């Protein structure tokens, strides 16, 4: 099916296409990725798809709209959706540490798993290390896709990428974490305990002595214990990361880049669309989200300010005119930035979603967003 109509992103065609099995929303933090993912998932489910939405740290109101009142790493059915077309909607929030724990439990012996899960270095790594959340989002996507193939649980997975400082972190972090877990530092920690050369490695002993002074004896011991217990799992992390990246390149996946009409967010969207092109990953298009609009387009900011000047500083009418002037300046600014982005990226389908007066806090709000996304 066509996903583009006169340069516009046709998201209804995208979610209706049975060959679309994975949609990844991505972009800078704070542009509405999570709301976009949830709205697309709800719209697809009510049009007949079996959908699971993987969200990353949604706002409380959005979580309540989906019936997710607490962090839960298990997909659960969203109540009160229209199932008359045969679809359904499950939703979940990524629990980074729980996902990491599940990987360890699935791929290590019970004894090794116990050593790893109780290790202080592992607890820190799985809870707060930079890039872990992005890697675990990839892990969870791989798990959901595998389950969907095995038991036909879902025919569409919608993924909300983590709120990274840079949108590019989602593609880079799995490689960084895999490199850390297979890197020279941890291999160095394993070296003294291995093989017949363990007593002859003077260079290693010197290095360990230096690290002991820098890190402290207990920290170094924790890291060494982790490295020894984790040794058999090193290769698996890279293998799964490579498989998931390969999955993201397949035609069954579509990336939807979300951006707000501000320079930083649009610049991030430009970087991301170019990166997707370089990585040969399928880009469906760009959502220009939260674009300021008004019903009184003919009343320009200049006319409002001139009229307010004549009325003077006092009075309700002058205040209303100044408020409208501020809004019109925002409308014009958003439109100029959006038009400039479209000119620079003529080959990329886009859809503009107007800013709403209130935050989304229920399913009706998500339906409204879904209708706007459909253009």
Topology:
Blueprint: E1 4-5, E2 8-9, H1 11-16, E3 22-26, H2 33-46, E4 50-55, H3 60-65, E5 76-77, E6 88-93, H4 96-107, H5 110-117, H6 120-128, H7 132-151, E7 156-160, H8 169-182, H9 184-190, H10 202-215, H11 217-230, H12 234-249, E8 253-259, H13 263-278, E9 283-291, H14 301-311, H15 316-344, E10 350-354, H16 363-373
Parallel strand pairs: 3-7, 3-8, 4-6, 4-7, 8-9, 9-10
Antiparallel strand pairs: 1-2, 5-6
Helix pairs in contact: 2-16, 4-5, 4-7, 5-11, 7-8, 7-12, 8-12, 9-11, 10-11, 14-15
Features:
8-stranded mixed beta sheet, 55% helix, single chain, 10 strands
Walk me through the structure:
- The chain has helices at residues 11-16, 33-46, 60-65, 96-107, 110-117, 120-128, 132-151, 169-182, 184-190, 202-215, 217-230, 234-249, 263-278, 301-311, 316-344, 363-373, and strands spanning 4-5, 8-9, 22-26, 50-55, 76-77, 88-93, 156-160, 253-259, 283-291, 350-354.
- It has 375 residues and is α/β, with parallel strands linked by helices.
- The strands form two sheets. The protein has an eight-stranded mixed β-sheet with strand order 5-6-4-7-3-8-9-10, sandwiched between helices. A two-stranded antiparallel ribbon has the order 1-2.
- A hairpin with a 2-residue loop joins strand 1 (4-5) and strand 2.
- The longest helix is centred in the C-terminal third of the chain and has 29 residues, at 316-344.
- 38% of the residues are buried.
- Residues 1-6, 193-208 and 210-216 have low confidence and may be disordered.
Cα Rg = 25 Å
SS element count, helices: 16
Summing up helix and strand content along with how strands pair, one would put the structural category as alpha/beta
Question: Uncertain regions: pLDDT < 50 for 5+ in a row?
Answer: 1-6, 193-208, 210-216
Q: Report the mean per-residue pLDDT as an integer.
A: 81
The percent of residues in helical segments reads 55-70%
In spatial order, strands of the major sheet run 5-6-4-7-3-8-9-10
Distance between the ends:
17 Å
Order of helices and strands: EEHEHEHEEHHHHEHHHHHEHEHHEH
Largest sheet entry: 8 strands, mixed
What's the shape? elongated
């Amino acid at each position: 099916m066509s996903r583009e109509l006169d340069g516009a992103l046709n998201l209804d065609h995208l979610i209706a296409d049975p060959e679309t099995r994975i949609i990844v929303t991505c972009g800078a933090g704070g542009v509405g990725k999570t709301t976009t993912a949830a709205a697309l998932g709800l719209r697809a489910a009510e049009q007949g798809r079996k959908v699971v939405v993987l969200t990353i740290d949604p706002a409380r109101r959005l979580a309540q709209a989906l019936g997710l009142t607490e962090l839960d790493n298990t997909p659960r059915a969203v109540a009160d959706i229209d199932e008359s077309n045969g679809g359904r909607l499950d939703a979940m929030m990524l629990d980074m540490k729980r996902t990491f724990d599940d990987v360890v439990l699935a791929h290590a012996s019970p004894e090794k798993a116990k050593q790893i899960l109780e290790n202080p270095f592992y607890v820190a790594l799985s809870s707060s290390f930079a890039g872990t959340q992005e890697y675990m989002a990839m892990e969870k996507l791989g798990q959901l896709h595998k389950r969907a193939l095995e038991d036909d649980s879902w025919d569409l997975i919608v993924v909300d990428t983590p709120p990274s400082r840079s949108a590019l972190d989602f593609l880079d972090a799995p490689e960084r974490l895999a490199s850390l877990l297979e890197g020279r530092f941890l291999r160095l920690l394993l070296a003294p305990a291995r093989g017949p050369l363990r007593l002859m490695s003077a260079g290693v002993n010197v290095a360990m002595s230096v690290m002991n002074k820098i890190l402290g004896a207990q920290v170094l011991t924790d890291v060494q214990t982790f490295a020894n217990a984790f040794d058999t799992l090193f290769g698996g992390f890279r293998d799964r990361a490579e498989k998931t990246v390969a999955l993201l390149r397949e035609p069954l996946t579509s990336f939807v880049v979300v951006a707000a009409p501000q320079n930083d967010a649009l610049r991030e969207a430009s970087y991301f669309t170019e990166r997707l092109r370089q990585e040969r990953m399928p880009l469906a298009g760009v959502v220009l989200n939260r674009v300021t609009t008004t019903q009184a387009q003919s009343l320009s900011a200049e006319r409002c300010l001139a009229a307010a000047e004549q009325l003077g500083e006092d009075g309700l009418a002058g205040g209303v005119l100044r408020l409208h002037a501020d809004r019109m300046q925002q409308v014009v600014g958003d439109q100029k930035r959006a038009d400039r982005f479209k000119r620079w990226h003529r080959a990329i389908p886009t859809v503009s979603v107007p800013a709403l007066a209130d935050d989304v806090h229920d399913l009706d709000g998500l339906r409204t967003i879904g209708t706007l996304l459909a253009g």
